[in-house]
Structure formats: structure tokens, C-alpha cells
């Protein structure tokens, strides 16, 4: 089975061809990503209108490159999958309308994919991971703890009550005068800093359950940064990065206890999963709970179309070939416990 995947929910235009080979290393036949970072970094964040326009300019070239690199003709593709939400509506429309058009013209199924489902299944594209597992999904727009019981059986245990972890890292990086995207910039600067230098509150310390909050950390950072000297920036970056990680791990411990079934592993996913210190801390948590730890390779943590194609493969394996309605709407908000 060979699937063409398309991703355009934020600031990366991406097209990929993925197959369901039992040999993991042979699954991704191509994964073309055209990043818009250079366009948005001038503004310190994604400008939705520019993002939509640039998806429109790049999508055709991305798809052609993905097919060429995979050495495959569209007629030999089995289905076309595209991110239908959540995300920025303009970009989602570009990706889904393109996918639907190709599907109609080539007479192939069109499969609407939830972007978060793409992130959460990526670890299974690169490893053999059994259900159930605990998912920690940390991206630019979302933060979710969920017990993953099977394909499309996602039990949300907790989520952020305000900002996502990635959003907070991006905003604090901007306050520190670091380039967009802020997560990698904070990670890099942290290498020279002392993570014990500045103290941050622990969010929702006494609250039951595993909901998280990051906006208080962002406010605390803003107050500290107002009085900060240039020489202290690395210490601030390292302390803030550590505060975010501690907030995640503190609630992740509760999430483990909230799982109904005996989980086999803890899976970290989403753009923030590229953070090495976070990976180490989640790995330690898994070790403490005698379960395995998985995260996608760093290059597949941030948005890409291979994860969208793979989610379609997982769905077809479970449900057989199907077509989402061609009238399927794009959904700027769309959680994983309500996919279909
Ligand atoms: O999943 P993603 O690529 O896009 C969304 O679906 O939102 O996540 C992007 C987020 C951004 O906030 C970015 O700063 C963060 O992931 N990020 C990181 C790292 N690389 C990307 N955060 C911390 N450390 C990193 N190395
Ligand atoms: Zn994403």
C-alpha cells in the first residue's frame, strides 16, 4: 500500500509517499518539507494569511518532488491523505482542496486526517509499539496527555487549560530576543546556561488530575526578563526550559496513574518532543514506571506529511479502504477523542 500524504496546517508545506512495508526503514519513500520559517521569522510568529498564500505557491512543487523522489506515478498511489484539522484554516483549505482534487481526478480515495493523530502515530511509523500506551503530545498549538488504546480509541486524560508548551517557549524566546521558532532557540541557548539560577512556580500543584497550565510560567518569565541583563539570558533560557519540563513531568506522573489499562510504553510526540532534555526526562519517567519510552526521530517530531500518510495507513489497516466524504469540512479545532 502506498499513500500520498499532504500537510499544510501551520507553516510547513509538506508532501510524502509512505508505504506499509514490514521493514521500518523502507516505509518512508519521500518526505518533502518546504518550510516558511524565513517568511514568518521577521514577525516573530506565524502570520496566517502569509502562511495560506505560501502553501498555495509551494504545494504543487512539493507533491511533484515527493512523487519523483519516491519514483512513483500518481496512478500507482492507493489513496491521498491530507490534514483536515486542527490548524490554520487557510492552510488546511489549500491542502484538503488539493488532495480532494487529485483524488477525484485519479479516482482514488481521499482520507481526511487529524493532525494530532498524525503526530501521535508517528512513533509507530518508526518503531514497533503495542497498544495501550500513554501519549504526551506537546506541539505549538496543543498539549495533551492521552491513553492510546487502539487506532481511533484515544482517551484524553488531561490537557493544557491555557497555552501549549510550544507556544510558551515561542513567546518567551521572543521576549528574550531569540528567533522564531523559539523552542529550538531556547534549547540551544540553554546549553550555556544554569537551569537552577531562576526559580519558577509549579503550576496547578494542588489540582487533581493531570491538566497542565503553562501561561503562569510565561508571566513569571516576563517579569524576570524585564529586569534581565544580556549576560543572564542563557541562565534564563535554561531555567525556563527546565520549568516547562518539570511542569510536564509532574503531571505526567499523574497521567501514568490515571491510565485504566496496563500501559506498555510512554510515547512523546509533537514539535516540542524534539527537545533533548524533555526526551531524557520522559525516558527516565518511563524507566521509573518499568515501561518503554518512544519518541519519533527528531526530524519527524515537527510537522511533516509522512506522519499524515502513515496515519492513513494505520486507519486503512483497521477499517479497510474508505473515502472520507468529499464534502468533509476542514476543522480549525478538532480534538483526538472525536475523530470518527
Ligand atoms: O508540532 P509542531 O511542529 O507544530 C504544531 O503542530 O504546532 O510544533 C511546533 C512547536 C513550536 O512551538 C516549536 O518552538 C517547538 O515545537 N519546538 C521545540 C523544539 N523544536 C520545535 N521546542 C523545544 N525544543 C525543541 N528542540
Ligand atoms: Zn504539529
Under CATH at level 1, the class of the largest domain stands as Alpha Beta
| β-strand amount | 15-25%
Query: How many structural units, i.e. domains?
Result: 2
- Using the coordinates shown, work out and report the CATH topology of the largest domain: Nucleotidyltransferase, domain 5
Radius of gyration: 20 Å
Gross CATH architecture of the largest domain = 2-Layer Sandwich
Q: How does the overall form come out from the CA principal axes?
A: globular
Main sheet? 5 strands, mixed
Could you tell me the number of beta strands? 10
- What structural class do helix, strand and pairing data support? alpha/beta
Catalogue the unreliable spans: none
Order of helices and strands: EEEHHEHEHEEEHHHHEHEH
Spatial ordering of strands, largest sheet: 3-2-1-4-5
Mean pLDDT: 97
Bound molecules: 5'-O-[(R)-(carboxyoxy)(hydroxy)phosphoryl]adenosine, zinc ion
Question: Ends: how far apart?
Answer: 22 Å
CATH homologous superfamily descriptor of the largest domain: ATPase, nucleotide binding domain
Fraction of residues in H or I helices: 40-55%
- Oligomer state equals single chain
Number of helices: 10
